[in-house]
């Protein structure tokens, strides 16, 4: 089954201000999120595992694949659909060896060299960015802009998802680069009405 | 090859006060440390991986097995000799399934119920403690004392290693419980002359 990268929700409990993570994710999926990444920092492995078990049930009950950020062990332990790794995570080629050929592996890149490296070393898709400035990830680095995003997209043949600061005001500009989807945190989870926010984003992505 | 649990060194870069981790570990092995656990918190997965690659080379060049704390993904990625998990880490049974039957898996316990659970669910050895108060692990919990340590040892048939605050002043008391070894951080890495400290600890353990 081909993966739908169009509206790729990445979780961030911090942005929910105490609202329930599972309710928020379910609302985002009801609104059209097509792919889900569970991203956690600074919690125990057991807490991450417990969240991931519940999240997998939820995502898969909606036929949405669950990708785990960074932690290959959690991805294996819950038999997640995939793993997303960045430049600070374990080497891509080793992740691919351990995960096997059937799991989805995503790789974060911010320039064409990293993109080519990712394509060559077993990534199924690339997360390219941060396209714009973002408050969601403290370690995100400087914005690459839509120009470099397009260069990255044009340099590889695997799907590319735009990451970082993408929302209703710039979604048109992003889609023109030819990328396969957008990765969204605050434009969905940062809104009071998450179903509505996800519908708006999904609608805009499809209509543009 | 049977594992020698007698003097089990657990790393802690914090206690080294800037001294080189690899030099310190090599000195501890030269002094008699028989088993090595790489324990890291709050570093990126890539940084942990890079440390583990180097540590595996070092440990295995001295025929000392390398155990990775908590992170099953790092253990798999560097093909470490084993994994040590605690109550806050991924479930023991799942770790065993993923690691397979041949890798060493250790499990932290602080009472006989956890010890029996560990033995039943695939642990090769138990780390029991903290036996005494310790400054090395902020999350260590209240000391169980040598009495409970002995109860734990008597309740299982797999090897038990005493963890937490074990050093030259109490090593005799610990050995009388019948445990198979001691897990040491500060009593070796906290000393200026690490070779000498490890020789003292190893000598005491063997002579008592
Ligand atoms: Ni990471």
Q: What characteristic shape of chain A results from the CA principal axes?
A: globular
Task: Provide the CATH topology of chain A.
Answer: TIM Barrel
Beta-strand percent range of chain A? 15-25%
Helix coverage percent of chain A: 40-55%
Binding site for 4-amino-2-methyl-5-(diphosphooxymethyl)pyrimidine (chains A, B): 37-41, 69, 108, 137
Pfam families (chains A, B): TMP-TENI
Binding site for Mg(2+) (chains A, B): 70, 89
EC number (chains A, B): 2.5.1.3
List descriptors.
homodimer; 208 residues; alpha/beta; TIM Barrel; eight-stranded parallel beta barrel; 9 helices; 8 strands; 40% helix; binds nickel (II) ion; ThiamineP_synth_TenI (chains A, B); magnesium ion binding (chains A, B); thiamine biosynthesis (chains A, B); TMP_synthase (chains A, B); Thiamine-phosphate synthase (chains A, B)
């Amino acid at each position: 089954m081909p993966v739908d990268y169009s509206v790729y929700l990445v979780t961030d409990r911090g942005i929910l201000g105490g609202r329930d993570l599972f309710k928020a994710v379910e609302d985002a999926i009801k609104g059209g999120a097509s792919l889900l990444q569970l991203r956690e920092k600074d919690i125990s492995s057991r807490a991450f595992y417990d969240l991931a078990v519940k999240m997998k049930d939820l995502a898969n009950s909606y036929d949405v694949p669950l990708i785990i950020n960074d932690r290959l062990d959690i991805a294996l332990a819950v038999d997640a659909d995939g793993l997303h790794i960045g430049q600070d995570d374990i080497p891509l080629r080793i992740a691919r060896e351990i995960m096997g050929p059937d799991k989805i592996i995503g790789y974060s890149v911010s320039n064409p060299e990293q993109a080519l490296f990712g394509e060559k070393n077993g990534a199924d898709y690339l997360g390219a960015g941060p396209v714009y400035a973002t408050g969601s990830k403290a370690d995100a680095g400087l914005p690459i802009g839509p120009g470099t995003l397009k260069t990255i997209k044009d340099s590889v043949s695997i799907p590319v998802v735009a990451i970082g600061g993408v929302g209703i005001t710039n979604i048109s500009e992003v889609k023109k680069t030819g990328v396969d989807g957008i990765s969204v945190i605050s434009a969905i989870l940062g809104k009071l009405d998450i179903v509505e926010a996800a519908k708006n984003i999904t609608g805009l992505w499809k209509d543009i």
